[in-house]
Specification:
By secondary structure, this protein is α+β, with helices and mostly antiparallel strands. Helix content is about 35%, strand content about 25%.
């Protein structure tokens, strides 16, 4: 791990595949990043954790993710899984094929994957973007939820994106709170859905009608760098 910043008894470091154990433990302990949406369609929590832990391990391989740690204990209290996309596909990973695997394994994965794809559809249309950087997902220990850690990780993710020659940064968010936070950082909204009314384009059903605030609002945001 490479130290990036240290302040207020919190250290921010660049993560690698060597941090997969700590990140996967955080996914399970703090919350599975898609837990609230998954709960709306009665997906078992242990299944959502399995899927998101896998996504975390894949994302860590690119060495672009960030983690926040307590300076005294060394305990991870937050992470952002970041990756670079090229031509709409994740560079250097097999996320697409493995998503198909999980779609077959767990019925609930399909609706969530289609929702994410719908939200990201044509996100950079007419912008001239060639090398987008994506904040895939993140988690913060609830004890630190009001400490500005998520904002710090978002800003530092922009720095990582610029260091790697990316011309934009994007994120699919699953709450109105996160959507509002990124807007304050200069992000533009590419898509926004109220899950109470969202219709799955494949089935014609409303799979997330039971989603509750603030997780009933999802969407994709981007920022040109």
């Amino acid at each position: 791990m490479r130290l990036l910043i240290e302040a207020n008894n919190i250290v921010i470091k660049r993560l690698s595949a060597l941090d997969s154990t700590a990140v996967c433990a955080s996914v399970a302990q703090y919350f599975s990043p898609r837990k609230n949406i998954a709960m709306a369609i009665n997906a078992p929590l242990h299944e959502t954790i399995e899927v998101d832990q896998y996504r975390a391990r894949v994302g860590l391989c690119q060495g672009l993710s960030l983690g926040a740690f307590e300076t005294t204990s060394g305990r991870m209290i937050a992470f952002y899984i970041n990756r670079i996309e090229t031509g709409g596909k994740t560079n250097g990973s097999a996320v697409t094929s493995d998503t198909d695997y999980f779609k077959e394994k767990y019925e609930w994965v399909g609706p969530i994957s289609r929702l994410s794809e719908h939200a990201k559809e044509n996100i950079f249309r007419d912008t001239g973007v060639e090398k987008p950087f994506e904040i895939d997902f993140g988690a913060v220990d609830p004890k630190y939820s009001k400490h500005g850690i998520s904002t710090t990780l978002s800003i530092m993710s922009e720095d990582v994106a610029k260091e790697n020659g990316c011309d934009s940064i994007a994120s699919f968010v699953t709450s109105s709170y996160t959507l509002g936070s990124l807007k304050k950082l200069g992000y533009s909204i590419a898509s926004r859905f109220d899950l109470s009314y969202y219709v799955d384009r494949k089935t014609g059903l409303r799979p997330f009608v039971n989603a509750t605030p603030p997780h009933n609002i999802v969407g994709s945001l981007y920022k040109l760098l």
